[in-house]
Amino acid sequence: MVKSMSLLLSLLFIVFCHSSANTAVYDVVKLGAKPDGRTDSTRSFLSAWGGACASITPAMIYVPKGRFLLKSATFAGNCKNSDITIRIDGTLVAPSDYRVIGNAGNWLLFEGVTGVSIYGGILDGQGSGLWACKAAGNSCPSGATSLGFTRSKNIVINGLTSLNSQMFHVVINGCQNVNIRGVKITASGNSPNTDGIHVQLSTGVTIMNSGIKTGDDCISVGPGTKNLWIEQIACGPGHGISIGSLGKETQEPGVQNVTVKTVVFTGTQNGLRIKAWGRPSTGFVTGVLFQHAVMNNVQNPIVIDQNYCPRNEGCPGQVSGVQISQVTYQDIHGTSATEVAVKFDCSPKHPCRGIRLEDVKLTYQNKPAESSCANAGGTAYGFVEPTSCL
Ligand SMILES: *[C@@H]1O[C@H](CO)[C@@H](O)[C@H](O)[C@H]1NC(C)=O
What we know:
about 400 residues, mainly beta, Pectate Lyase C-like, 2 domains, 3 helices, 29 strands, binds 2-acetamido-2-deoxy-beta-D-glucopyranose, Pectin_lyase_fold/virulence
């Protein structure tokens, strides 16, 4: 009875969501995947992809309820159609031994695909073993990104949950027109390099209505990002939303036209951050709007740091080449966990230009916080506390 009910529901889903009669459906269980969490189902998923990709009509890959063990898999493009829906009702589980995928770079990678939409699903990266290895200071694999899209366009990720990735949870690299909505990302607050969503070399990425709790940046924005829209995000624990690190390479494309609005940061290391290496680079940041942010006990609510130099290697005595301009902070309020809530530490060679602070109120222990500026130019409008040092 239960079985026939769920079959009926699946059929209804297919009928309502893909009324075009010629949608080809590839159910991974029918292709041999086992929902037992133990049997390696990688081949069945790849064969579902192979079918969907070769289909000349729109295709759907269906993953029923249950836990499916998957090793590293690349879902490669040059498909015959540009309308592939992946509907996931179950959980995809990475091997519990982190070494199996730890050096693969990615766990699940889509490469060179067009028109792929993922609805629902839970990805369980089982990263805690690798985090423990790293914490013990042993030599460990660097770890895999749970879900990567590279050189792809017209991508939708809707309603996905990603748990405990080894490294980054989601990476969008070299893509165009990517719509990420309603995702939930969770890893322990002290897990290393478990960034929530990383975007780089990509144009037209939208990230909305998502909750991200992690041990590194909730969202990080790398070189070559254009027309990025981030809205309605809950971030924390984590390191905040970061444009950067930028300027690590001497030749590097810039970041332009980024909107970050309606974000709540809770107990994070940073709020709204721009971060660049203290070394020469062609990189730049221009046209950023940070709007409507709430800070709850955030260590560095507003920060530009152009002196990033981890382990003091390759930058001492040099200054950042990254030119930062036209950055607006509008309606940012809440509490700072440290005295200095606004810090602009810009490059002496390429001072920050066109910083605009408008309606900012950040307190530290119920008193106005402080601000600190180096090589930063701009203007304050409306009520601004801490008093602007621009
Ligand atoms: C900036 O990016 C947004 C999407 O985030 C886009 O709608 C807008 O047209 C872009 N503006 C320019 C000037 O390219």
